[in-house]
């Protein structure tokens, strides 16, 4: 359903893109960086700093406007900036494996999926889905809509769909105790949000979650940066991506039903065996991308940086997106200032996007103040003794 939503929305998005200029793209890129940072951390300050760290890392290398070298320390390996593959693999894969290794325990305490009669479970699951087609359709619609909203992510989609299914259920008391309708609603929304999330990701470079933030990195690696050029000059690639996602979902379900019980046992593998293997694969990927050993250094450094920032509860997704969109922010701001001067901030659509940024940043602070005020208003009555 998410892919269908993508297919139906592409004509309208292309019309909208005609009204989007350099000033609007600057504001949208900034919104994407700050949104993914704020919405993937518990602290707004850490989320903002995550995006800013990514923007700072993007300044390493040659200036996208003048070509001036910045922060290269005389190393020719930094002329083109840091390796996108090395940064992404380091912040996500290597940092996560360092965390697992430091924990000293397997990912799961016991192997998953050791039921003897697997086929009966598959048939029962298919029957449950057939009985709850309406729940699947509702979850798909909710997931597509939430995926279209920048920075919302799958967690929001799943909780909204779950809550909607509980409200419409004749037996809401079963939810939270293994009700199959809740599982179906959440998973339908989770799958559909990927197709809906492709719309802002491909059209404006604004991801719907951390997964789409990584996907933007893949697009830059293969030379298909998201934005108006992709939607206008390579529109066929957009449809390829959408329907490939739908086909991958079907094939992934078929393969997963057969392999998941066995593959899940990897979660029981000791961390001192699993972590080095996956780190080695990640380092190999960095070498394949850059063809030089320097890519290994970038991946390892990004891995330790990502692990340290995870301990401090910063957003690795926000850092990655800030690094990817940093040149876009610089370039669009330069073009906007040359074209409009500082008046580009007063363009209607730019003002609306900047207002969204202010709302995104200020909302958690107001919510915290409201909670404190409500907590202060509800005070237990003082215990006073009887008068003598």
Describe the fold and architecture:
- The protein has 388 residues and is an all-alpha fold.
- It has helices at residues 2-17, 22-39, 44-58, 84-103, 118-131, 133-148, 153-168, 180-204, 210-221, 228-233, 235-263, 271-290, 294-311, 316-340, 348-377, and strands spanning 61-62, 69-70.
- The model is unreliable at 110-116 and 384-388 (pLDDT under 50).
State the gist of this model.
The protein has about 400 residues and is mainly α. Helices cover about 70% and strands about 0% of the residues.
Strand content: under 5%
- List how many beta strands DSSP finds: 2
Summarize the main sheet. Answer: 2 strands, antiparallel
Q: What string gives the helices and strands in order?
A: HHHEEHHHHHHHHHHHH
Key features of this structure:
single chain; mainly alpha; 15 helices; 2 strands
How do the strands and helices of this protein lay out in sequence?
Layout: H1 2-17, H2 22-39, H3 44-58, E1 61-62, E2 69-70, H4 84-103, H5 118-131, H6 133-148, H7 153-168, H8 180-204, H9 210-221, H10 228-233, H11 235-263, H12 271-290, H13 294-311, H14 316-340, H15 348-377
Antiparallel strand pairs: 1-2
